[in-house]
Write a structure and sequence with these properties.
Order of helices and strands: HH
Largest sheet: none
Organism: Neobacillus notoginsengisoli
Strand content: under 5%
Protein name: Fur-regulated basic protein FbpA
Oligomer: single chain
Number of strands: 0
Number of helices: 2
Radius of gyration: 15 Å
Helix content: 55-70%
Shape: elongated
Number of domains: 1
Length: about 70
């Protein structure tokens, strides 16, 4: 393929490895459907990281409590 495509693919692979390491560090080994994080692609891993950060931020923040 083209040079730009290869560069983006390598960047996504590198980020995917970082996302896997982060998810493993917080104890997550699979997604909600039971698929191992090692079998997920960059976009699925990115979505999991975003949801985890959002969930953590909203639970840990006292001003976000509704009651």
């Amino acid at each position: 393929m083209g040079k730009l495509f290869d560069t983006v693919r390598l960047s996504h692979e590198s980020l995917a490895q970082s996302y896997r390491a982060y998810l493993l560090s917080i104890g997550i080994t699979e997604d909600a459907k039971g698929t191992s994080i090692n079998d997920l692609d960059y976009y699925q891993l990115r979505q999991m990281v975003v949801f985890q950060d959002y969930h953590k931020r909203n639970i840990d923040s006292p001003e976000n409590n509704m009651f």
